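Today's session is about reading a structure prediction critically. Students often jump straight to the picture, but the first step is always the sequence itself: look for stretches that repeat, for charged clusters, for runs of hydrophobic residues. Only then move on to the predicted structure, which in these notes is written as discrete structure tokens rather than atom positions. Here is the chain we will use throughout the hour.
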Amino acid sequence: QVQLVESGGGLVQPGGSLRLSCAASRISFSIYAMAWYRQAPGKLRELVARVTLGGGTNYADFVKGRFTISRDNAKNTVYLQMNSLKPEDTAVYYCNVQTMNMITYWGQGTQVTVSS
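Below is the predicted structure for this chain, in token form.
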């Protein structure tokens, strides 16, 4: 059974930082891409950042310059360093993994709340 274990969410003041982690295990096929999505109340789930096996990255415009995605291929782990957080970054953040044979898995989500 595939497991995506997320950690690092929580409550932070505006301007603060958080680091999310997602470790994938029990995946039968090689991982191609790992990503973070988020979903705020009443809104659709949206891509935050994505990194491929080769290290290529893409970011949503609303996080460029503030968030950095990285991955440790040996550990099947993806990270999201979030700096200069804003109240509008408040959402549930979901880890997403895409395998080489195009199967997609989702984590259970971790809450990030930015508030004073």
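Discussion point for the tutorial: The longest strand covers residues 31-39.
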